[in-house]
Design brief:
Blueprint (H helix, E strand, L loop, with lengths): L20 E6 L9 H9 L11 E6 L7 H14 L3 E6 L9 H10 L4 H4 L9 E6 L5 E5 H4 L3 E7 L14 H6 L4 H9 L6 H15 L4 E7 L5 E8 L3 H13 L9 E7 L13 H4 L14 E7 L18 E3 H6 L2 H11 L9 E3 L2 H10 L11 E4 L7 E5 L3 H5 L4 E8 L10 E2 L4 E2 L5
Parallel strand pairs: 2-3, 2-6, 6-7, 9-10, 9-13, 10-11, 11-12
Antiparallel strand pairs: 1-14, 1-15, 4-5, 7-8, 13-14, 16-17
Helix pairs in contact: 1-2
Length: 439
C-alpha cells in the first residue's frame, strides 16, 4: 500500500508563492425545463394506446449523478402507475457499485432514489439472460428481472462519452448494451475494446431491442448548469434516430473550459457522480483510452486532483488522468470498487496512480515542477470544484488576457492570494476555511 507520508526532499522545498487568483464566471446557455411533471405527462400521451393495466414494467436507472433524473424518473413512474402498470425499478449500471446488487441499490439510494421517493420498489439482482449475440459471437445480455417483465423502460442521460467517439455515445443505446446488461454484459462488451465501440454499441443495442419488450426510453439532456435542458420519451422504433439527434444537442450544452491553456489545473474532487471517468475528458481532453476526438478543450500541462466526492464511495476511476494527487484521495479510495470498474471497462490506464503528495500545497508545487520553463510567479493556474460545475472557477491573474478575450468569461471581485492552512490544505476564499475535506 502507499505509505501514509512520502517525504520528498527538494532544494528550495515546496513553499511556493503563486500568482494572485480571480474568481471567474463562465457563462453558458441556461435554457431549461421547469415543469418536469407537466412535460412528462405530455410526452406520455404518445403511449395512450398501449394497454398497461396489470402489466409489470421494469424501469432501468443508471449510476450517474444526473441531477434532474430522480424527478424525471418519479414522474414517469407516476404516469405508468396511473395507466394501471405494476412498476418496479432495476439498477441499470453495468459493473458499478462494486458489481454487486447491494452496491448498486445503495448508489440509487445515495442519489435520493429510494422506493419511497420513486413510488416503486427497487429490485436489484446481478442475474442476466442472454438475448442474442453480435456477428462475431459476442453475447448480449439483459437483467433477468427486467427481461421477465412485460415491458422495459430504460432511463439515461444523452451526452458525449468519456472514452470514445461515435454516432451513439452515452445515451439510450449504450444503456441497452451495457447498463441493462449488468456486470456480466458490461464485461463482455468492454472486452470488444473502446476502439470498436462506435460499431459495437449500436450493434448490441439493435440486438437488445429486437429481443426484448422495450416499451420506450427516457432520454435526458442537461444544460451546462446541470439543469434539465430536454426530456423525451422515445418509442422503441425511434431509439437510434433520437439518440443520435439528442447527442448533437448534448454536445453543444456540456460544461467546458472557455480558456485556451493553463499550466496547472487543480481539481478539488473527482467521482462517478461527476463523470463516468471521474473527471470528464470532454473538459480535460484526457480520455483514459487515448482515443482521438477529445481535443476541443484547452491545453493543460499538469492536473492535480485533491479529493474524491462522497457519492463516489471510494471509486477513484479516472485518477490516472491526473499527474499529481494527495494522500487524502488515497486514504478515501476503495481499491476493490475502483479496480472492478477499471478492469471491467478495459481502460486500464484510468486506474494508474499519479504522484502522491502529502498535502495540497505540495501537490501544486510538484505539478509546477512538471511545467518546463515556468516560474511559480508566472504560472497559469486554474482551480475548479469538479468538471461538472464550471460556471465559477478560479484563474490566476496571469490569465487575464484569456479572460478579457472571451465575452463569455467575466472577472468577479478583486484579486486574492491563495491560502493554505498549517496542514497544507488549500483554503476556500469565500469562507476562509478549509473546503469540506476530511483527513
Amino acid at each position: 500500500m502507499v505509505p501514509h507520508s512520502i517525504p520528498i526532499p527538494m532544494p528550495g522545498g515546496f513553499d511556493i508563492e503563486l500568482p494572485r487568483f480571480v474568481r471567474v464566471r463562465q457563462t453558458f446557455d441556461d435554457a431549461h425545463i421547469e415543469d418536469v411533471e407537466g412535460r412528462i405527462a405530455e410526452e406520455f400521451k404518445k403511449f395512450a394506446a398501449v394497454d398497461l393495466v396489470g402489466k409489470r414494467v421494469a424501469v432501468g436507472i443508471g449510476s450517474r449523478g444526473i441531477r434532474p433524473q430522480p424527478r424525471v424518473a418519479r414522474a414517469v413512474i407516476a404516469e405508468l402507475k396511473a395507466a394501471g402498470a405494476d412498476v418496479f425499478v432495476v439498477p441499470a449500471m453495468g459493473s458499478h457499485g462494486g458489481g454487486t446488487a447491494q452496491g448498486q441499490q445503495e448508489i440509487l439510494h445515495n442519489y435520493g432514489m429510494t422506493e419511497e421517493f420513486l413510488g416503486a420498489p427497487i429490485h436489484a439482482s446481478m442475474d442476466v439472460v442472454q438475448v442474442g449475440e453480435l456477428d462475431n459471437g459476442c453475447p448480449v445480455y439483459c437483467d433477468q428481472l427486467a427481461f421477465e417483465a412485460d415491458y422495459i423502460v430504460p432511463c439515461n442521460r444523452v451526452k458525449p462519452h468519456t472514452d470514445f467517439r461515435g454516432q451513439h455515445e452515452s445515451g439510450l443505446i449504450k444503456m441497452l448494451a451495457i447498463g441493462m446488461a449488468k456486470h456480466t454484459g458490461a464485461e463482455v462488451i468492454h472486452q470488444q475494446g473502446f476502439v470498436n465501440f462506435h460499431d459495437v454499441i449500436p450493434a448490441a443495442g439493435k440486438v437488445f431491442l429486437e429481443n426484448t419488450k422495450t416499451l420506450f426510453g427516457i432520454a435526458i439532456v442537461e444544460n451546462a448548469y446541470d439543469q434539465l435542458k430536454h426530456v423525451e420519451l422515445v418509442p422503441r422504433d425511434a431509439f437510434f434516430e433520437r439518440d443520435g439527434a439528442l447527442l448533437e444537442i448534448a454536445k453543444q450544452n456540456i460544461p467546458r473550459f472557455l480558456f485556451d491553456s493553463a499550466d496547472v489545473l487543480v481539481v478539488d474532487e473527482i467521482g462517478k457522480n461527476i463523470s463516468g471517468a471521474g473527471m470528464d475528458p470532454n473538459a480535460t481532453g484526457r480520455p483514459s483510452t487515448g482515443l482521438p476526438g477529445f481535443d476541443a478543450g484547452p491545453t493543460l500541462s499538469q492536473i492535480v486532483v485533491r479529493d474524491l466526492t462522497e457519492a463516489t464511495h471510494g471509486n477513484a476511476t479516472g485518477l490516472g488522468g491526473a499527474d499529481v494527487t494527495t494522500q487524502r484521495v488515497i486514504r478515501k479510495m476503495d481499491w476493490s470498487m475502483t479496480y472492478v470498474n477499471i478492469v471491467t471497462s478495459g481502460a486500464i490506464s484510468g486506474g494508474k496512480l499519479p504522484l502522491v503528495a502529502d498535502t495540497d500545497q505540495q501537490a501544486i508545487a510538484i505539478a509546477l515542477r512538471g511545467c518546463a520553463r515556468v516560474e511559480a510567479a508566472d504560472a497559469k493556474v486554474v482551480r475548479v470544484r469538479n468538471t461538472l460545475e464550471l460556471a465559477e472557477i478560479w484563474m490566476t491573474e496571469t490569465m487575464l488576457d484569456q479572460i478579457e478575450a472571451n465575452p463569455n468569461m467575466e472577472v468577479m471581485g478583486e484579486p486574492f492570494e491563495a491560502q493554505f492552512d498549517a496542514e497544507g490544505t488549500m483554503l476556500d476564499f469565500e469562507t476562509d476555511a478549509a473546503l469540506r475535506l476530511t483527513a
